[in-house]
Structure formats: structure tokens, C-alpha cells
Design goal:
With about 325 residues, the protein is of the alpha+beta class. The chain contains seven helices and nine strands. The protein has helices spanning about 1-20, 100-110, 115-130, 135-140, 140-160, 180-275, 280-290, and strands spanning about 25, 30-35, 40-45, 50, 60-65, 70-80, 85-95, 165-170, 175. The strands form three sheets. Strands 6, 7, 8 and 9 form a four-stranded antiparallel β-sheet that branches. The chain has a three-stranded antiparallel β-sheet with strand order 3-2-5, with helices on one face. A two-stranded antiparallel ribbon has the order 1-4. The radius of gyration is 66 Å and the shape is rod-shaped. The relative contact order is 0.06.
Length: about 325
């Protein structure tokens, strides 16, 4: 009897130990623990480590608070032209703020990312496609889709779920139906050929413009050289004229000086002669000449070549 009682107590103790042990659990690093009791979310938020909850009455969940990437796959959308295309994958890099983890889970459950990331990505992709053509979605505006998605997600999360932080959005190229893709590729090939022809035309125009500019520069250079040579020749001729004028002026001045000197000498001689040729001097010269030219004649008569001699007057 006592042995049966002991075995019963041991079994009860084992069951109690097992139940108590089931309350032990671990919260991993990068997560926080949230607890529910009877379906009601408790206020407690457990940090990483070993914790205990009331068995059978409480449940818990680990909620990641580090950076994570949610991948939204196979998103169909129709363009404004009626073509249905498929985005294979859209990746949203996000993080749940630790301080707002309980509030976010209380409002949107532990699957908070479904309404604010997965469903929101589907909605925004379809809105974008419906406002644009296939060419715009697949090529012209494709680089703007990720920015558009990121801005829309950040705006709504900031307003309705501030605990969700959107970090980045990556969008893969959409898949186009085969028949549309074939036509699209033909059109793109024609467009590429047109672009190549346009680029070749621009290259030819640029080469022609370069050649014309080169010829213009050479012509301007030749004109500048000719102008410089002409100016130099004019300057040389002007210099020669100035030299010639200086030589002429010097010659005129020299001749004038000689004429002035001759005139001065003549005037001085005339003045000297005027002063020298007095009646007395002339009379003296007359007698001197007569004396030097006196000839002696022998005969009966004396020539009368000479004029009568002046008679001396007696007082």
C-alpha cells in the first residue's frame, strides 16, 4: 500500500516537473519575447535569454527586431494598355523597432508585415502599372518603381504603423507575355537601329563641324598672318619715309646752312670791299697799276694811250 502511494506521489511529482519544465523557454538574440495569457497580450517584453512562463495558461512568441528582408513573389499587374505582366520578386528591407514591438503586434498581430508590406506592395505595384504603358513600366520608368514603392511604404508605415522602419526596396524586371515580348523586341531593335543611325549622323555632323571649324581657324590664322605682314610692311615703308624725310630735312638744312654761309661771306666781302674801296684807295691802286704797266717809248712822239695826267694846282 505504501509502495503504491509512493509510486503515485513520484508520478505526480514527475508530471508536475514536466509541466513546470515546459514553461522554460529561450529568447534568441535579435528578438524580443511577447506573452499572451488566455489570448490577451501581456505588457511584459522579454529580452534575449532564458525565461519562464506559466505552463498551460500562457503562450509566447519571438518577434525579430533586427533587419530582415521580406520577399513578395509573383505580383501580376495590368498596364494602361491592357497588357498583364508579372513581377517575379519585390524585396523589402525593413526592421521592427524594439521599443514599439508590443504596440505593433497588439495592433496588427505577429504577422504585422502582411498588411503593411506584402499587401501594400501588391497594391502599389498595380496602381503604378495601371497609370503607365508597358514601355514605361518595363523600360522608361522602371528605375523609378523602387523609389515609388519605398516612398509609399514609408509614408503609410509612418502614419499607421510607426514601429515598422522601411530601409530599402528592390524590384526585379517584370516578365512580359511571349507574343508581346516578341513585338516589343522588334520595336526595340528598330528603335536601337534608329538611335545608332542618329548617333552616326551626329558623329558625321560633329566631324563636319570640326573640319569647318578647323578650316575657319586656318583661314583666320592666314588672314591674321597676312594682316601682320601687311602691317609690318606698312610700318617699314613708314619708317623708310620717315628716314627719307629726315635725310631730306638734313640735306635742306645743310644746303641752307651752306647758302647762308656763302651769303654771309659774300655780304662780308661786299661790306669789306665797301669799306676798302675808298676813293683814295682806288686812286692808289690806279697809280700802282700805272707804275707796274709803265712802258718806255723811244721816238719822236709819245703815245697818247694814256689819258692826260692830272695837273697839279698851285696855290
Amino acid at each position: 500500500m505504501e509502495e503504491g502511494l509512493m509510486m503515485g506521489l513520484a508520478l505526480v511529482a514527475l508530471i508536475v516537473a514536466l509541466i513546470a519544465g515546459s514553461g522554460l523557454h529561450t529568447i534568441r538574440e535579435g528578438n524580443v519575447g511577447l506573452y499572451w495569457r488566455g489570448g490577451a497580450l501581456l505588457q511584459a517584453v522579454a529580452e534575449p535569454g532564458l525565461h519562464w512562463k506559466t505552463p498551460l495558461l500562457e503562450s509566447y512568441a519571438e518577434v525579430q527586431t533586427t533587419i530582415q528582408t521580406d520577399s513578395v513573389s509573383d505580383i501580376p499587374c495590368g498596364t494602361s494598355g491592357g497588357v498583364v505582366i508579372m513581377f517575379s520578386k519585390v524585396e523589402v528591407v525593413n526592421r521592427l523597432k524594439k521599443g514599439l514591438a508590443r504596440e505593433t503586434v497588439a495592433n496588427y498581430t505577429i504577422h504585422y508585415d502582411k498588411p503593411w508590406i506584402f499587401d501594400k506592395v501588391h497594391h502599389e505595384i498595380n496602381q503604378f502599372c495601371s497609370r503607365h504603358s508597358l514601355t514605361e513600366v518595363a523600360i522608361l520608368l522602371f528605375d523609378q518603381i523602387d523609389e515609388h514603392l519605398a516612398e509609399a511604404l514609408k509614408k503609410d508605415c509612418k502614419t499607421y504603423a510607426p514601429g515598422i522602419e522601411i530601409i530599402a526596396v528592390r524590384v526585379t524586371k517584370p516578365q512580359v507575355p511571349g507574343n508581346v515580348k516578341h513585338e516589343f523586341e522588334k520595336r526595340e531593335a528598330a528603335s536601337a537601329a534608329l538611335k545608332v543611325a542618329e548617333q552616326q549622323r551626329q558623329v558625321v555632323e560633329a566631324q563636319a563641324a570640326t573640319e569647318a571649324k578647323k578650316m575657319t581657324i586656318e583661314a583666320q590664322r592666314d588672314a591674321d598672318v597676312a594682316l601682320i605682314n601687311s602691317q609690318r610692311e606698312v610700318a617699314q615703308q613708314k619708317s623708310e619715309q620717315e628716314k627719307e624725310a629726315i635725310r631730306d630735312a638734313m640735306h635742306v638744312a645743310h644746303e641752307k646752312a651752306l647758302a647762308d654761309a656763302n651769303y654771309y661771306m659774300t655780304m662780308k666781302k661786299a661790306e669789306a670791299n665797301r669799306l676798302l674801296l675808298t676813293p683814295e684807295y682806288l686812286e692808289l691802286q690806279r697809280y700802282s697799276n700805272i707804275a707796274s704797266n709803265t712802258k718806255i717809248y723811244f721816238g719822236e712822239r709819245i703815245p697818247t694811250a694814256l689819258g692826260p695826267l692830272p695837273q697839279s694846282t698851285s696855290s
